[in-house]
Write a structure and sequence with these properties.
single chain, alpha+beta, PH-domain like, 2 domains, 4-stranded antiparallel sheet, 3-stranded antiparallel sheet, 7 strands, about 40% helix, about 30% strand
């Protein structure tokens, strides 16, 4: 793939999600201070949880694109904000896993690249996972 050519399609976290996480962190801090009553434990625990939530929000800002596809393969997010290129030859399977439990259905898009398995949820891609799986499968078939 030419580094200057844009990906054919990319999926990212919803744009509002980092702000919601940051507001949640502020709410945690406020609740920790509200319930402190002179005890340092509640604000400390709330601060630690808020720091984790802010780090999670920061990841959404630094690496918003979780998955991209083009004619040569896939680019997936790796680690906190890294990227990993998966040529089509390394992609063994693209599956949509649906599990129902207690009236709730959870979906996960699985990309099996042999030595690594990449999992994406609805909130990672901001798109219906069945449509993403269909797009990836069609791109993979077109590249062969």
């Amino acid at each position: 793939m030419n580094p200057q050519s844009p990906p054919s399609r990319q999926w990212r976290v919803p744009r509002v999600l980092p702000a919601v996480k940051a507001l949640g962190a502020l709410a945690l801090i406020a609740l920790g201070l509200l319930f402190a009553a002179g005890d340092p434990v509640p604000p400390t625990l709330a601060g630690l949880a808020a720091a984790g939530l802010l780090a999670w929000a920061l990841r959404d800002v630094v690496a918003p694109v979780r998955l991209a596809v083009d004619q040569d393969g896939l680019t997936v997010v790796r680690g906190f904000a890294g990227r990993r290129r998966l040529p089509w030859a390394t992609v063994e399977a693209i599956r949509l896993d649906r599990r129902s439990r207690r009236g709730h259905t959870a979906e996960t898009l699985e990309i099996d690249a042999g030595e690594s398995l990449h999992l994406f949820g609805r909130r990672d891609l901001d798109a219906p996972l069945d449509e993403v799986a269909a797009t990836l499968t069609a791109a993979r078939a077109a590249a062969r």
